[in-house]
Design goal:
Number of strands: 4
Helix content: 40-55%
Number of domains: 2
Shape: elongated
Bound molecules: zinc ion
Oligomer: single chain
Radius of gyration: 21 Å
Low-confidence stretches: none
CATH architecture of the largest domain: 2-Layer Sandwich
Distance between the termini: 79 Å
Largest sheet: 4 strands, mixed
Order of helices and strands: HHEEEHHHE
Amino acid sequence: MKNIYSIFFSITVLATLGLGYIWWNDYSFKNNPLDDELQNRINKKIKELQIKSYQRFGIKRTFPIIISDDMSSNHYGMAVYTKNQEIKIYLNKNRFKENANYMIEDVIPHEYAHAITFAIGHFSTKEKGHDKVWQDICKKLDGKRCERFVNHDDILIEKTNLF
Ligand SMILES: [Zn+2]
């Protein structure tokens, strides 16, 4: 009997510790910046894209990258052209937790290509911003899956008198 109790006791303790760890992990992920290794990989990818956009399009402009906690879960990233003509790239922080590689190799070049379409003054909303111009830029940035039609809304053009 004593053994069974100690087995149950051990299981309860372990389960509690496990839950505590999961909770702590979620909490610390939500309330802290991404870890250094991940942040370095993101920075490296962005640097690479800056070099490519200069070499292939002559664009020296850099775009602020905002890693956000507040994006809806169906958004991986978003490119925004603001009323003040700023171009910003938002990345959904929570998506880095599930699939950092996808975020870095697919989503960052994808959104960067949107940012470049804005930088060259191309504001077409055809195919929700994934038209031929965007596709070509995406390919030249060595993005992945630039041909596939993407039906999510991941561009926001705040300037109202464009069309
Ligand atoms: Zn897109």
